[in-house]
Amino acid sequence: MSHSLLLLPGDGIGTEIMVEVEKIIAWTNGEGLTDFSTDHGLVGGAAFDKHQVAVTEEDVEKAKAADAVIFGAVGGPKWDDVPYEHRPEAALLRLRKELGVFANLRPAICYPALAEASSLKRELIEGLDILIVRELTGGVYFGEPKQITDLGNGQKRAVDTQVYETYEIDRIARVAFDLARTRSGKVHSADKKNVMKSGVLWDEVVRSVARDYPDVEFHHILADNAAMQLVRNPKQFDVMVTDNLFGDILSDAAAMLTGSLGMLPSASLGAPDPVTGKRKAFYEPVHGSAPDIAGKGIANPIAMIASFAMALRYSFGLVELAGKVEAAIAAVLGDGLRTADIGESNRKTIGTEEMGAAILSKLKV
Ligand code: NAD
Ligand code: IPM
Ligand code: MN
């Protein structure tokens, strides 16, 4: 059966890394391993330049209709001065919210070949396999009021509002505990219940969900301590569930453990449709548009390709093919191939296109 993918490359390196995924799609379709129809849309600065908005209504509708959305990255200094509501990042936030993809899975895995590439010592990260489960459609990203008020005396007041309701915490916690059951069976929940009311509710709800999963080991951790523990002894973690903002920050920290931010994929999933059981799904690398290296052809496409592998697994049940893509990535790294962002000295590096081609050629064998 044919499945539709909406490809939204975005800005900066987003367009460069998406090309490498398109080559993989062309191959899997050609081999009859998949039957994807692909459509493209503009998001972020690219959409703003053409339509003066960060994403058009038409592309939002296309995203809602697609079986899965594959997203590159948005943003860049070119759009620093555009009105706040049209800034490139607004496209991403709107799409996440409108698709209702509340569960953002951010796996941080240390590929064996990259044990020396992490900023931490080999023994601390060898075999690392953490899954950050970030709440994605609530919290301070979306809470109202969100505004800057002119106080009229030369002063302004800026307000962002952290809001969580029981159901939002309950559903993300269940995703985390369900996933923990398929892994090593341990969940840490990170919040700031010592300071924030939303943290108090977060902890109360996660603890009550934990009671439904007596087979899963549950730990509470304060988010600041979680940041410290991630760099002190990351292998103590298996699944970490946390809110939108803490999840954003903690996942960038986790990314670096793996050798580069350019390695970390993500899947964002909605609630299953009551009739079809299908979930809305959005796949994107954790990193941004990397304006500092955009246009140079040196971006690491691995996070993007691994995000596509997550789409194969979570949206299309192509678990074996997803595993093959991930194995191809591991094999290429095993051969010593590296893009420049991967933190190892004294190694010759290759560009985006060469890395994409190397992964594809491993897939072909
Ligand atoms: P960034 O993730 O774009 O870059 C941080 C650093 O990591 C840079 O030095 C960059 O060169 C490097 N890097 C990131 N991905 C890489 C890759 N695949 N290969 C090689 N190196 C890579 O974060 P930033 O610089 O803070 O943000 C730049 C812009 O991207 C901002 O406008 C920000 O809002 C946006 N952003 C977008 C997303 C997204 O679209 N999902 C995510 C994060 C940031
Ligand atoms: C991410 C990004 C986004 C976020 C930005 C670009 C809106 O940093 O996906 O991690 O903060 O969620
Ligand atoms: Mn981020």
- Largest sheet, strands/sense/barrel: 10 strands, mixed
| Proportion of residues in helical segments | 40-55%
Instruction: State the low-pLDDT regions, or none.
Output: none
Ligand identities: nicotinamide-adenine-dinucleotide, 3-isopropylmalic acid, manganese (II) ion
Looking at how many chains there are and whether they match, the oligomeric state comes to: single chain
Question: How many beta strands in the DSSP annotation?
Answer: 12
CATH class of the largest domain: Alpha Beta
Shape, per Cα inertia axes: globular
The CATH topology of the largest domain is Isopropylmalate Dehydrogenase
For this structure, what is the CATH homologous superfamily of the largest domain?
Isopropylmalate Dehydrogenase
- Tally of discrete structural domains: 2
CATH architectural designation of the largest domain: 3-Layer(aba) Sandwich
Pfam family, one: Iso_dh
Enzyme class: oxidoreductase
Binding site for Mg(2+): 224, 248, 252
Protein name: 3-isopropylmalate dehydrogenase
